[in-house]
Amino acid sequence: MSSAEKNIPEGPAGGTADAGGPPAALFVFTWLWVGVPMAYGLYELILKAVQLFTGG
Amino acid sequence: MAPGFLDRSRTVAPPGWSRWLIPPAALSVHLSIGQAYAWSVFKPPLESSLGLSGTASALPFQLGIVMLGLSAAFGGTLVERNGPRWAMTVSLLCFCSGFLLAALGAAVEQYWLVVFGYGFVGGVGLGIGYISPVSTLIKWFPDRPGMATGIAIMGFGGGALIASPWSAQMLESFGSDNGGVAAAFLVHGLVYTVFMALGVLLVRVPAEGWKPPAGKKPQEQQAQKPLVTTADVSARNAVRTPQFWCLWVVLCMNVTAGIGILEKAAPMIGDFFADTSTPVSASAAAGFVALLSLANMGGRFLWSTTSDVIGRKNMYRCYLGVGALMYLGIVLLGDSSKPLFIVCALVIISFYGGGFATVPAYLKDLFGTYEVGAIHGRLLTAWSTAGVLGPLIVNWVADSQEAAGRSGPGLYALALSIMIGLLAVGFVANELIRPVDPKYHVPAPAATAAQTAQTAEAMERAGQDGGAESKEETGR
Fold this sequence. Notes:
The complex is a heterodimer. Chain A is about 60% helix and about 5% strand. Chain A is mostly helical. By secondary structure, chain B is mainly alpha-helical. Chain B contains 19 helices and one strand. Residues about 460-475 of chain B have low confidence and may be disordered. The interface of A and B includes residues 9, 27, 33, 55 and 56 of A. Chain B: It is a multi-pass membrane protein.
């Protein structure tokens, strides 16, 4: 998401500014919810992949 | 849970709702159901604790994949009609209760219950969950449908990366007897219930008339993309078009070629370099497989996003044409250079993943957004077919070559050449894809009437529920 897009309100027919949009904390929480497990999976995968270059 | 909570009309986004909350909703489902590819972690403990053969212990996974294809194909229309929250809930209930049934089966040593739970019930959850966010993401990101579906479908690849080490650690803690397996299944069912619930709670469909932010043009408004339609085709009509079947062949060939190398990756790299000065050890082969998983996942996002820029047809020309050249590189030069072999294999597998992730956007280009989820579900039967074809071809040919006295790269040359031929067939099928004949389009008045009925239903329900909420739900 570009920084410009973050500031653009979204809504019906192009959107009008609306104070009732989701709070920033919800963004952080939801992306962390899925991001942390993915980071764990990637970390474990990289540990295995390193063996390709060190394991002979 | 409030009555009607799952109803499509209750998921209409209020003004100001950000579309960037939809990808994590989709990911919470896809990262969970992607666990299916980590089933092999459970095979050895099941075999030892329940006295099963390798074929028997693979059955829950195989049934799960079959059910994925069938439930996506037959449930697609229901998903489209009832909306993403309903679909994600059905997926959650089936996928997680499948684990709970499997836990019971392992605990009481009734293997059929493991097969029924994980394979049949859980498999329905896989299929419905796989297609549940697709049309919603496409509607929220008309300017970047490839990127949006790429994020979700990347999650399906990422799910196994999380589940594989997590499940292995759990079995280490609980033990590998039937009680340990049952406990691991139970924890999986409970944790995935909580994890997927985020998607159920968070998912929203855009209000009627919603447009992407200023400056972001819907894709159909972008110039020079003749395959991108502004019309809509129903799922029923889509399967009557040559475009659907050409795309079916394209997906089937691309997946067959990818699965062929994916399924034999570890023994293949070992055999290729067995007689060279740089043989590959078992741990290095495991590292190669891990690297392929990364390429599979990364390709889903990278290439699908690229397709938003260069167009879907061009992207598939790369998957199929460049993919064939990569296979040719392995056949002709593969055993002369390990880096070359690895790079070619990584590109092939990234194209395999990319093919899965780009296909929903290709369908949206050809058939519109009207029933794209249902059409996608029907197209996934190509995946089921390829899942049988790919391993069958590679294993059968490799076995017959071994019987003929060949070894090393010679075991795979013929199979890889067959893959090049299949990719060529897919390339031709892709070239045959043209815009859909207008006779298949949904008449505009009918589409408008359907939308009006949906809006009226939403307004009526909102009116019953009361003031403030009603304004949010209808986006008015």
